[in-house]
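debug: dumping io for the single-chain case to check the tokenizer round-trip. Nothing else runs in this session.
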Amino acid sequence: MTIQEAKSFVGSQLRVSWTCRKGNEISDTVHVLGVGFVPLYGPCLITDIGEICLDRVVEYTNLSPIQEVA
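debug: decoded output
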């Protein structure tokens, strides 16, 4: 996931799969609060469950309904 992709999901509900530091894959539903740079980790999704490093994201699905622009 790139920073530009991540920024487009701010305020959205996502189903995200990522690898932890031990190499295990974790999946969870998160609310994306923002995208930031965390020293020693790099760019991260800031979520309601904590930070998720973008380079560790394996798969994601947007669960928020698409809103039409009037």
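debug: round-trip ok. The longest strand covers residues 25-38.
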